[in-house]
């Protein structure tokens, strides 16, 4: 892996844009201590998406953070992202690996499906994400995954495990205590009036002041 999957993981979402441009929001989150940024924008505006992704990958490089593209393997390759994150309908690990090479990260959304997680790990996924862990305003239709999913997944894989869905400063400690290596957040960062401060608070609550 090019960079470790651990700590606070910011996910951007064009459906719920922050009150500032995405580059500004990510810069503030990086100052606050975010270690991983996933660019998630499923719009058809190819030119804007490539421009934004290129700007974000440069910001993450400068901060020593990991930059992941959601869904779009071609975009991840074009901007030299650290990797790609695949959902249920976003292609398979083998295709992503063939396109990106061995030195790029491939993450897989596993929801609450341990069989999917096991198959993804066996196919060579670099990290596994579970959720929604709590009701999520970003994906209100998502079924909930129990916190026990981390303990159950750890029984068959040593891949980093990521928790996502409805996580905020009030519940992040429960997620890390349950065994998540990284915690992915959308609203609790992007919708905050002070993104840098909100990020620092999430890290302090979830990973401790030394994180």
From TrEMBL:
One of its GO terms (cellular component) is cytoplasm. This is Thiamine-phosphate synthase. Residues 8-189 form the Thiamine phosphate synthase/TenI domain. 2-[(2R,5Z)-2-carboxy-4-methylthiazol-5(2H)-ylidene]ethyl phosphate binds at residues 136-138, 166. HAMAP family: TMP_synthase. Pathway: Cofactor biosynthesis; thiamine diphosphate biosynthesis; thiamine phosphate from 4-amino-2-methyl-5-diphosphomethylpyrimidine and 4-methyl-5-(2-phosphoethyl)-thiazole: step 1/1. GO terms for biological process: thiamine biosynthetic process; thiamine diphosphate biosynthetic process. Mg(2+) binds at residues 71, 90. Transmembrane segments: none annotated. It is an enzyme of class 2 (transferase). Gene3D superfamilies: Aldolase class I. The keyword Transmembrane does not apply. Its EC number is 2.5.1.3. 4-amino-2-methyl-5-(diphosphooxymethyl)pyrimidine binds at residues 38-42, 70, 109, 139. Its cofactor is Mg(2+).
């Amino acid at each position: 892996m090019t960079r470790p999957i651990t700590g606070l993981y910011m996910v951007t979402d064009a459906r719920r844009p922050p009150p500032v441009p995405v580059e500004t929001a990510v810069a503030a989150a990086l100052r606050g201590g975010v270690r991983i940024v996933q660019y998630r924008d499923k719009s058809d505006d190819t030119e804007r998406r490539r421009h934004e992704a290129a700007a974000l990958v440069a910001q993450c490089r400068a901060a020593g953070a990991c930059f992941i593209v959601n869904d779009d393997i071609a975009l991840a390759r074009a901007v030299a992202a650290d990797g790609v994150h695949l959902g249920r309908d976003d292609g398979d690990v083998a295709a992503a690996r063939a396109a990106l090479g061995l030195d790029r990260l491939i993450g897989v959304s596993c929801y609450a499906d341990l069989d999917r997680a096991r198959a993804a790990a066996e196919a060579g996924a670099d990290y596994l994400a579970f959720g929604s862990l709590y009701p999520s305003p970003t994906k209100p239709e998502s079924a909930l995954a129990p916190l026990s999913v981390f303990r159950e997944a750890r029984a068959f894989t040593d891949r980093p495990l990521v928790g996502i869905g409805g996580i905020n400063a009030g519940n992040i400690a429960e997620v890390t205590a349950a065994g998540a290596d990284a915690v992915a957040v959308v609203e609790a960062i992007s919708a905050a009036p002070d993104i840098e401060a909100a990020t620092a608070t999430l890290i302090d609550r979830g990973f401790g002041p030394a994180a």
